[in-house]
Amino acid sequence: MLVLLVLVISYASSLRAWVQQRSEISDTRVEISRTSAEVDALEQERLRWEDSAYIAQQARERFGWVLPGEVGYRVIGADGATLGAPRAPDSLPAPPSASRAWYDEVWGSIAAAGEVPETAAGPPPPREGVIAPPSGRGARHR
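The chain above was modelled as a monomer; its predicted structure follows.
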């Protein structure tokens, strides 16, 4: 009887592992089919972008472009907003910082790279041989 009980327990754990693995296989197959469908959709979109007519259509829709000789119209609603306005690009690059000249930015990064971070004991001691940055925006070296 004891041997039968040990066999049942060992087969039950093996059966539980088998069922768990089957479930994982099923989930993986679903994920593979979903990913394959996404890859197919992206491939179709890539093929559309190779068509010059599709590119022209997208330029018209997104940017409001017209061909030479055509007249473009914008419909303005009662609130003053343009209806059917072209979409803004998803992300625009950040404008460059105009507050400092480029050489000030370069010197600031060089100076910051040579600094030792401050600790709780206070600022670091002055270092020998460190060249001070030029003062002012128009400073020149001779």
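The chain has a mean pLDDT of 79.
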